[in-house]
Amino acid sequence: MSEFDDQSDDDGSLIEICVERQTQPQPRLDQYLTQRLPELSRSRVQRLIEEGFISIDEKPAKAGLKLKGDERITIVLPPVEALSVEAEPIDLDIVFQDDDLAVINKPIGMVTHPGAGVSSGTLVNALMFHMKDSLSGISGVARPGIVHRLDKDTSGLLVIAKNDRAHRHLAREIRDKEAKRIYLALVERVMKEDRGIVDKPIGRHPVKRKQMAIIESGRRAVSHFEVLKRFGRYTLVKVELETGRTHQIRVHMASLGHPVVGDLVYNSKETGNEAMRRKLGLKGQALHAYQLSFTHPSTGRLLEFEAPLPPEFSALIDSLK
To answer: What's the pTM?
Structure first.
């Protein structure tokens, strides 16, 4: 048996992992599995542990168990439940699709998947209508096909998995930094540097629990930026993600003193309010997932996609020239 073995059938999936012996301390079981299996969120891993679907050396596992090495972890992914998300006839800009995946150009204002207080009008509701049962189930019944996400007020490209095999391949490419995700952002003030790297850990804000922040205990987050154009009081930058933490670009740019224009959360003192958005002609924040590339899970061929700026973002740039 290999170090990582995935056996799938019509009743679900079986994953077995042999933990390598290492000199440094191993992390908690739930943390380790989240790192090894990026297609599974930490909450999903913890739920699988609680429901008895994960065992270590054929014994029930506990989320907080510290691994020592040489353990054999067995994960039984239960059969995908009937999706409870309602399909809705919402228009989608489908850039590409085949039997394994689809690339979507998400508009500003659309939530990626259902969550607290949001049960309709999401990308997932639209996917359920356009692609019906052809979506992976790894991320759970509320997030079928979702490999990565974009914030509601961010536009641009994201990839959707149509089966579990494709989902695992794409998630691993993102984890291993093989997939490329490049954004365009208009930020406050003129940046002096032509390019740079932001390497600052991001975690949940200790007080404002709906926000993220630069905190020492957070997960490593790395963003590469390059100045494309300087204007009177703004700068257009290209940002490539090396990691993919929640709100990463928004938090990193704000930490440099250059928050994203129109960001209601991390730029509330400047253009991050509805009145300024209207004045600038923006429907959301000036952040767009511009380019996306990855290898195809079946053919191994490199796929590269590019989405033009939304009209209001493009118009704002033109007005600043």
So the answer is: 0.78
Q: From edge to edge, which strands make up the β-sheet containing 4-9? A: 4-9, 12-18, 72-77, 54-56, 59-60
3-class DSSP state of 283 = coil
**In a 3-state reduction of DSSP, which class is residue 54?**
strand
The phi and psi torsions of 27 (rounded to 5 degrees) equal -75, 180
CA gap 207, 204 in Å, rounded: 9
The answer to whether residue 151 is catalytic is yes
Q: Which DSSP category does 100 fall into?
A: S
What is the number of other CB atoms lying within 10 angstroms of the CB of residue 120?
Answer: 12
pLDDT digits (tens, 9 = 90+) for 219-231: 899 999 999 999 9
Task: Write out pLDDT tens, residues 233-284.
Answer: 999 999 999 998 999 999 999 999 999 999 999 999 999 999 999 999 999 9
Residues paired with 188 in a beta bridge: 234
Joined together, the tokens standing for residue 139 give 């991320």
> 236 by DSSP, 3-state: which?
strand
Sequence-ordered alpha helix ranges (H) in the chain: 29-36, 42-50, 123-131, 164-175, 248-255, 274-280, 311-320
Catalytic residue selected from 151, 153, 164, 263: 151
Closest listed residue to residue 191, CA positions, set 163, 221, 229: 229
Contact 114, 122 (CB under 8 A): yes
